[in-house]
Please model this.
Amino acid sequence: MKSRVNYVEFACGRKGSGKSELLARRAARFARRIILDFADEFAGAYRGAYESVGFGETLDALEDAVTRPNWIVVCSLLPEEVVKLAALLSPPGRPRAGLSYAVGGLALECGEVDIIAQTGAALRPEVANLVHRGRHSRTSMLLATRRPRDVSRLVTSQMDVLSIFRQQEPADIDYVASFASSDIAGQVAELGDYEHVQVMPHSGRVALIGADGTERMLLSAQTG
Model:
C-alpha cells in the first residue's frame, strides 16, 4: 500500500488474527504517535515512550513530547477524556489551531474504536469532528475492532483502507459484505492468522494479503 500523508485505516478481526500487528507496522512510519490504550495492553511495549493515565498526565506528556522530533505517548483514558484529547488535537472549526497541525502531523492509534464510536450512539461533536475532518489537522487514524458491526458508520465512511481479518460471527460477516462482494465476505471466516482482505473503498480495489505479505487481486468492492 502506498504511504499517504494523512489517512484513515480501519482493521477488523478476531483477537489474535493479526490486526494489531498490521496497524503497528503502519504506525511505525509516523514520527509522532498517540496510542489510546483502553485495556493497558501497551504498558512497557515501546522503549522510551511516554505512558500516562488520565487526561492530566496525558497533557503533561504531550507538552514534553512536542519538544522532540520523534515520540510515542501511550495513554489510558476514559471515553469522556478522549473527547478532551480530540478537541486538543483538532479543535472543531479550527483544525490549524490544534496540536496535530502544530507538530506537523501525527498518528492516532485505537485498537478498540467501538468504545468511543459505537453504532447507534451519538458521537460527541469533538470525536465526530476528529474522525470526519482530522485530515485537515494532519491527523492520521489507525483504528481497529473485533466487532465491526458495533462501530459507527461515521468512522467507516471516512476510511481510506479497510483491512478485514478473520471473522466468524454472521452479523460481522454481513457487515463486511456491505463493503466487499458477498463472495469475498464469505471467505473471511476461512482466513488464517495474519491473512487479510484489503479493501480500498474509494477506488474499489480489493486484494487478498497473505501472511507473508504477498498480494493477490480479488473482485472489486461494492460501491455506493
